[in-house]
Amino acid sequence: MITAPAKRSDGVTVLGLDPGTRNFGWGVVRRIGTRIVHVAHGTIAVGGDASLGERLVGIEEALVEIIAAHAPDEVSIESLFFAKDAQAAAKLGHARGVALLVCARAGLTAFEYAPARVKRTVTGSGRADKAQVAQMMRVLLGLPVTPHSDAADALAIAVTHLQGRAFLGTSSHSVRGAIR
User: Fold this and answer.
1) Dihedral over Cα of 57, 62, 30, 17: its sign
2) Which of 33, 67, 144, 176 is deepest in the core (most CB within 10 A)?
3) What is the pTM of this model?
């Protein structure tokens, strides 16, 4: 079980996750009233020479620390998309599985968002490229520098969740019940 700091009552904190087996983006944002405030972000960079199993262990350990440090109320994660490379899609699925497991063990509900929806929410276009998403996160969250693309994607996923939070029954898919 993950030990997290006490929950706050002055807003909602969301951890956004952009899974990857080499670079796993994460971002924490908080809604206070009508404002969305940046809390933290980063990339879990696991050794490229490490085996897939070792990389997944590194992701798990880092996510446990991130959740303990930031005590999110909810989690948003990029949903699976169909890729031409089945092996790459399978590896991405492994990283998502680790993230969902860590979140479930922490008692957090995870909400999925399709990449096109995230891009449309933060840039206005479902076909925006990674640089546009990163630039919008810098502007929307008042960051001094543009975040790395994986961290920017994770922040965008968290922002998308907060933007649609009032409509959770119809705007996202919760994956909590699917994990035991």
Assistant:
1) negative
2) 67
3) 0.87
